Amino acid sequence: MLEKLDMTQLISMFDLLPGTLFWIKDQDCRFIHANQLFVEHSGLRCISNILGQTDYAISPPQLARQYMSDDQKVMAGEIVTNRVELNMEPSGEFSWYSTSKRPLFDSHHNIIGSYGFTHSLEQSAQTLSNVEAIKAPVEFVRKNFHQEISVTELAEISFLSVSALERRFKKYLGKTPKQFINEIRLENARRKLIETRLPILEIANQCGFAEHSYFSRQFKSMFGVLPSDLREEVTRKVSTSDLDAIEQDQHL
User: Fold this and answer.
1) Is 190 exposed, middle or buried (0-12, 13-18, 19+ CB in 10 A)?
2) Overall average pLDDT of the 223-245 stretch
3) Could you report the per-residue pLDDT of 23-51, keeping only the tens digit for each?
4) In what order do the strands lie in the sheet with 20-26?
5) What is the residue-averaged pLDDT of the chain?
6) Which of 22, 207, 246, 247 could form a disulfide with 189 if both were Cys (CB 3.0 to 4.6 A apart)?
């Protein structure tokens, strides 16, 4: 009976799982399938915009690197089961998710890709209680990233020692508290560069970076582009859109 089962029909069943994102990737970490919720979560309308793409096409660079690094580890034999992690929502906000990943085999048991599931834990109080000690400092950083924040301060908020807090961050986020603070600041700076016309130096200051050169180096390391280059690209796209709109008006 299993031999006669239509795989397309089987895969489509994952659209019925409430609140669950599902995807399949090939050996090069390119998407070959995703359920409808995954497509919507990516901010795209159609699965055709995802197929053949990597995470870099739909996620911020720092998250794309993390996802693809996971894929490589899974295809090398590492198993991910119900790992609690912080992922980005389409709105740009972060939420807690539980993720599982497995290697994908062909009929000869050769690894030909990977697949995975993830679902939001925001509605699961019992699961979130297990990471409450890290949720508090995460929320504090999100609200106060523009201020000076010390790891000691975060440990006090969490009622943990500094070493225990760092272990929690490594376990759930795969990074140190300092790295997390830096990434939150940089992500907010990126959004301000795109969504506002504020001077770059002012954006750096608003996001907790006192030294402009350090901000530029960190920004390029995380996003692969200098703040000035990103601003120039955004300005060029806006100008092009304005010209297109004027041309359309002239033809009406």
Assistant:
1) buried
2) 73
3) 999 999 999 998 888 888 887 778 888 89
4) 31-34, 20-26, 111-120, 94-105, 80-88
5) 82
6) 207
pLDDT interval class at 124 (50, 70, 90): low
In a domain? residue 237: no
pTM: 0.58
Residue 244 lies in a domain: no
* Alpha carbon distance 10, 3 (integer Å): 12
Question: How far is the C-alpha of 252 from the C-alpha of 245, rounded, in Å?
Answer: 11
Say if CB 185 and CB 193 are below 8 A apart: no
- Give me the pLDDT at residue 198, please: 93
Q: Quick: pLDDT tens for 94-116.
A: 777 888 999 999 888 899 999 99
Cβ 92 vs Cβ 85: under 8 Å:
no
Burial string for 102-130 (b: 16+ CB within 10 Å, else e) reads ebbeeeeeeeebbbbbbbbbeeeeeeeee
Cβ-defined contacts of 219-223 (< 8 Å, 24+): 219/186, 219/189, 219/190, 222/61, 222/62, 222/183, 222/186, 223/60, 223/61, 223/62, 223/186, 223/190
Boundaries of domain holding 179? 131-232
Note the pLDDT of residue 7. 62
Whether 23 and 40 have beta carbons less than 8 Å apart is answered as no
CATH number, domain at 53? 3.30.450.20
Residues 84, 172, single domain; the answer is: no
